[in-house]
Amino acid sequence: MVQLKKKLSGEMKVKSIAGACEMPEPDLYVITSAGIRIPAHSKILASASPVLENIIERPKKRRSSERKISMLGVPYDAVSAFIQFLYSSKCSEEHMEKYGIHLLALSHVYLVPQLKHRCTRGLGEGLMKENVVDILQLARMCDAPDLYLKCMKLLSNNFKAIEETEGWKFLQKHDPYLELEILQFIDETESRKRRTRRLREDQSLYVQLSEAMDCLEHICTEGCTSVGPCDMDLNEHKGPCSKFSTCQGLQLLINHFGTCKKRVNGGCVRCKRMWQLFRLHSSICDQPDECRVPLCSKVIVIFDGSARYFCSRPMICRRGIDMRWRLLVRKVMSAKIITSLALPKRKREEPRITNQGMRSFNI
């Protein structure tokens, strides 16, 4: 009785569509797994699917008055929704929610790309931890890369929870190759995250060094709070600059550098750090003759010669050290350019303040 009602409802749906469009009577039947026949028009099915077109036009060994197409392996309602889409090119949210998996399989088998795209989007929006393994297997079989990637990302981000589901346990028993594929994807994702995190940390370091170079030039040219050029009166109150968090640390380092007694023998780590900052500034400074940073032009000559200020054993691995240093200079200069481009146009166009004077600190 239930099958009879479904059969009649299917015939009524197709007849209503045919009546609205003034179509002729259906000339074939679609046979479902339940044995229920859905009437349809061969021209409509052939125009919507090249696979159905080949099936319809294929010559039959046994001639009969009734034409049939079998769509087995999926529920009757899913086949009915599929036939309705071939007629109207529309799929309701209710059908997508109930039969999305079956419609994706049918759209892939019968080459209906519009429905396949709709199913891929709908299933991707409804992904959950409980069904992600099943949908992943289907996306892999139906060649749906977008849906496959969404499933993989969800698996990677929630692997511990998904590992406890029945779908994952079934996958481990019956598809070890896909399990290995998932684990490799998770490992590659974690590696990319580590590389990205490391690159961000390096970029942050280059930005900090670029900011330190600006602060060093600012201190030696204009002065800031407690440190400034020797020809400047530090008794006059000078407020902190916009980069005071970096500038304050650099001022403390300069104060130590000016009073440290171990600096001559090269035994002070903080003084070596100050030498490195001087060297970095000299490497990126484009106006060494006018620059007020101490040893700006002289450091370049020392570096091109023996580099004794920066390396206690200059003859060991000097080529490797120089290559690493050039790479550091390029990275800091790139960070400086990127930072300057991020500033407002008015600030970028401000002229650079350069004053002739004695290159020393007033501490």
TrEMBL record:
GO biological process: regulation of DNA-templated transcription; response to hormone; response to hydrogen peroxide; response to salicylic acid
Pfam families: BTB, zf-TAZ
Keyword field contains Zinc: yes
Keywords on record: Metal-binding, Ubl conjugation pathway, Zinc, Zinc-finger
BTB domain span: 26-95
Signal peptide: none
Record SUPFAM superfamilies: POZ domain, TAZ domain
GO molecular function, one term: calmodulin binding
Pathway: Protein modification; protein ubiquitination
Keyword tRNA-binding attached: no
Name of this protein: BTB domain-containing protein
Record organism: Penstemon smallii
